[in-house]
Amino acid sequence: MTTEQTAQEIEVPAYLAHPEVTQPDPVVPVAAPLDVTPDASTPGQEIAGALDQASLDSLFRTARTPMAWSEAPVSEETLHALYDMVKLAPTSGNCSPGRFVFLASRDSRERLRPALSAGNVERAMSAAVTVIVAQDPLFFENLPRLYPSEEARSWFAADHGLAEETAFRNATLQGGYLILAARALGLDVAPMSGFDNQMVDDIFLAGSGWRSNFLVNLGYGTGVQAQPRAPRLTFDEACMLL
Ligand SMILES: Cc1cc2nc3c(=O)[nH]c(=O)nc-3n(C[C@H](O)[C@H](O)[C@H](O)COP(=O)(O)O)c2cc1C
């Protein structure tokens, strides 16, 4: 991605780009579910300081993206606890560009409905809370407070492309932190990029200057998965050890 590109300019499949286009049926995975049985090389058994096995399962190994939600609500207190963890995870120069709009009321969710891809409507509308993960392109105005040791505000104020790139990178990271923090609090999480960003910005973010990045649905899943987990790339496929 060049410094001039934004989330809106990245080429995406049609069903992700337009809410009226139905998402195709998911590809049925051919591989068996991941083997999550701890073995001798499983972190936590031999790595000092690693989380215990149950925590690793909850965060990664047995956690799944839920297909359906139970009726259990998510309290405002839980949302505060969630943000209070997310805000502590690292961003470059502590720039903290992520912004989070919690759609917790029925009314706010109804306002979201027209922006959602057809295949995402049911799962978003039935979640306890949908979070709009956004970024503030003017995040650098807070840098004199957040990063007082340097003249960091001026780096970004003078370079719009650098500011855009930094906001997008770090807000996306903060959305990822939100996913894992939610799992750490016992919530289930269903992220979504299949929606009309411009429509969401117009409906919810007008006047704030914030720009939507992706959605994260929160709640307590039913635990019923229609499909086994899809395969992942192996270490040798996805990593270089130099
Ligand atoms: C940024 C992001 C966007 C996603 N967008 C969608 C979406 O629009 N619709 C959807 O059904 N799932 C969406 N997903 C869910 C992923 O497909 C799912 O989390 C992934 O396949 C892993 O599934 P698993 O947790 O069951 O292994 C998205 C996930 C992420 C992280």
Task: Name the features.
242 residues; alpha+beta; NADH Oxidase; four-stranded antiparallel β-sheet; 10 helices; globular; disordered N terminus; binds flavin mononucleotide
Polypeptide structure, described:
The protein is an alpha+beta fold. The chain has ten helices and four strands. It has helices at residues 14-17, 53-61, 76-86, 106-112, 121-125, 143-146, 152-157, 160-184, 197-204, 235-238; strands at residues 98-103, 129-135, 188-192, 211-219. The protein binds flavin mononucleotide (FMN). Flavin mononucleotide is lined by residues 64-65, 120, 191-194, 214, 229-230. This is Putative NADH dehydrogenase/NAD(P)H nitroreductase HN018_02545.
Short overview:
Residues 70-220 form the Nitroreductase domain. The chain has 242 residues and is α+β, with helices and mostly antiparallel strands. It has helices spanning 14-17, 53-61, 76-86, 106-112, 121-125, 143-146, 152-157, 160-184, 197-204, 235-238, and strands at residues 98-103, 129-135, 188-192, 211-219.
Task: Please name the CATH architecture of the domain at 66-221.
Answer: 3-Layer(aba) Sandwich
| Highest CATH level, the class of the domain at 66-221 | Alpha Beta
Query: What is the overall shape?
Result: globular
Question: How would a textbook summarize the main sheet?
Answer: 4 strands, antiparallel
- Give start-end ranges of low-pLDDT stretches: 1-41
Radius of gyration: 19 Å
Structural class: alpha+beta
- Would you tell me the overall average pLDDT? 86
N-to-C CA distance: 25 Å
Strand order of the largest sheet: 1-2-4-3
Count the strands? Answer: 4
Report the portion of residues in β strands.
Answer: 5-15%
